[in-house]
Amino acid sequence: MTKxxxxxxxxxxxxxxxxxxxxxxxxxxxxxQVHVKNxxxxxxxxxxxxxxxxxxxxxxxxxxxxxPIKIPAKRVCKFRLAKSLKDTVLGKK
Length: 93
Description:
The protein is an alpha+beta fold. The protein has helices spanning 3-14, 18-37, 83-89; strands spanning 42-44, 48-55, 58-61, 68-71, 74-81. It has a single domain (3-89), classed as IHF-like DNA-binding proteins (HU Protein, Chain A), CATH 4.10.520.10. The strands form 2 sheets. It has a 3-stranded antiparallel β-sheet. The longest helix is centred in the N-terminal third of the chain and has 20 residues, at 18-37. It is elongated, with a radius of gyration of 19 Å.
């Protein structure tokens, strides 16, 4: 699904214009980016939880040569599905 398709579906469901809906979705994305970057967790009931984590440095392997390589530590963004969405997607309900 493209962003335009998502905007159109949400706009139809909410009874808003596509332009208003796009501004709301863009604002939602921007708020998540800023707060997760600052280390805050954001939970949206029924959807999931956005968070930031730190991966440790480790030794990996070059798949072509098999030689060990150093993989540096880095920050990553995580998303964990809410139980209700997970059950719906996986067909448990």
